[in-house]
Amino acid sequence: KPHWPADSDAEFDRAPGGQSPWRAARVGASAMAEEKSHIHYGGLEEALSKPAGVSNENIRMPTGGDVSDQAVEDMLRARQQHEDAVKAFEQKAAQRQMAVPTSDAQVKAKLREFGEPACIFGEGPYERRDRLRTIMAGRSSETQHAKRQEATGDEDLFYTEGLEELLEARVKIAEWSIPRANQRLLKERRQRAEEDPLEYEERVDRFCTFLQRSMVAEVSQVGDERPLTQGKFSPDAQLYCTSSWSGFIKLWKVPSCEPTLTIRGHEDRCHSIAWHPSCRGAPPFEGKTVRLASASADSRVNLWCLTESQPLAVLEGHEDRVNRVVFHPMGEHVVTTSHDMSWRLWDVETSSELLLQEGHSRPTYGVSMHPDGSLCATSDLGGVVRVWDLRSGKSIMPLAAHGKQVMSVDFHPRGNMLATAADDHSVRIWDMRKRRCLHNLLAHNKLISEVSFEKGEGRLMLTSSFDGTVKIWNTTDWRTVKVLIGHEGRVMGADHIPSSISGHHYIGSVAFDRTLKFWSTQGKAEPPVDATSFM
Asked: DSSP of 368-419, one letter per residue?
């Protein structure tokens, strides 16, 4: 309370009515204090008697049931998010593996089947195909099945009706490949029974040591006015064939590397050449039989008898440049890969197209035939490799492990391994029986242009690269045996000789510097060496 002096009434003048100002102020303050109500929080006993955490009615504490309900809701929400993430991941994986038509006309027709617009303003063929892939992946299995029933009856979505000639070719390939597979397996079992694996490895190591000491560049020759693209030895090792950007195809004698025949093969760049499996001898040849095939950027494949300057037949059908060509081991069919994202099977005798196989989402590049003739491996510039069964037409083994474009594939002569070389500087070795990658070799510093196994036993593996080197690998422990350095530009390709000449091993290579080189274990400047003692 304020302190009021005792003599205040005497010191100040009286207010009107006979009351002093100090007394009036004191009376007013007392009245205000009496009117104001006090807030009562209760005693300590009441607070202790209430449950812990409960105060006033404006504070609501959760009960045990509320906590459990919230936990269940969080768990269900997290589970749903996980399921959505897994579903999105599986949908993306399914889109990558999905076989989408590559022809723009077929893409438009498929979009019409789904009830979608065939073309959108500003959309190109590539974007249209991606839109079709997204639509196909988003459709449920029931909807896809209903569409299949309406469009093609009981046929599968990704199967097309083939020609009668294709059926005959598949039967012929099966009849030819099954006995060869049986012979290969019997030979492998016999070799395992007769020779201990350690002895085989020691024999291969001795041969690799011999190569490491004696393999040198024997011959170097300017092959063309423009860069060379590929070089292959003939089946009997008498000739070496080269192709170039100028379109010329040249044959060279082995081992002298003397030019023996020059053909104007194509008007555009010639990318690949392949020898017929039964080609023997050297020019001049006799008879009009197919001995050589060449593929070009003009989307054509020429078949040559090498007795005339004009091709014996021209295979037309690809819509873009043809990258690689290879003969079937039986010799009656040719397989080609192209930038039109398809590979095709051709009949050599009739020069007709038997199969247009889709399935790759990027331009197809590398191709290799299984030694039995039953399988075919193709690669694309998207990093995917597919193994196809020629007898049934199925894609039996998709291999997606490379990070960049796969440029070359090759089967081991024993048929149990597949090598793939890519732009990610690595070579992967795949086990065909276990269906998995056995080894990942960081082989070069730049793009690997070609990989090939030694013909026959497959003791060696050869890789060529844009880093200007050719490497020889031991296939028992996958170590580098020899690095062949000599080209001044990117090495475009390399090949093993099918059979030794006088006991000596030869390797041929072609490069962007327009030169071809023969590497051998018998250099001209070195004394003769008996190479048969190491084999």
From this structure: EE-TTSSEEEEEETTSEEEEEETTTTEEEEEEE--SS-EEEEEE-TTSSEEE
Total-model pTM:
0.70
Identify whether the C-beta of residue 329 lies closer than 8 Å to the C-beta of residue 455.
no
CA distance 31 to 27: 6
Neighbours of 162 (CB within 10 A): 14
Say if residue 185 is exposed, middle or buried (CB neighbours under 10 Å; 0-12, 13-18, 19+). middle
Sign of the Cα torsion 240, 241, 243, 248 reads positive
What string of pLDDT tens digits covers the 535 residues of the chain?
445 554 444 444 444 445 555 555 555 555 555 555 555 555 656 555 555 544 555 555 556 566 667 777 888 888 888 888 887 777 777 666 677 888 888 888 888 888 888 888 888 888 888 888 888 877 644 444 444 444 343 334 456 678 899 999 999 999 999 999 999 999 999 988 988 889 999 999 999 999 999 999 999 999 999 999 999 999 999 999 999 999 999 999 998 999 999 999 999 999 999 999 999 999 989 989 999 999 999 999 999 999 999 999 999 999 999 999 999 999 999 999 999 999 999 999 999 999 999 889 999 999 999 999 999 999 999 999 999 999 999 999 999 989 899 999 999 999 999 999 999 999 999 999 999 999 999 999 999 999 999 998 899 999 999 999 999 999 999 999 999 999 999 999 999 998 888 788 899 999 999 999 999 987 543 444 455 444 4
Contact 262, 217 (CB under 8 A): no
Tokens of 446: 């730049």
Strands across the sheet containing 375-380: 364-369, 375-380, 384-389, 394-400
Strand, coil or helix: 261: strand
CA dihedral 29, 31, 33, 38 (to 10 degrees): -170
Residue 285: DSSP 8-state: P
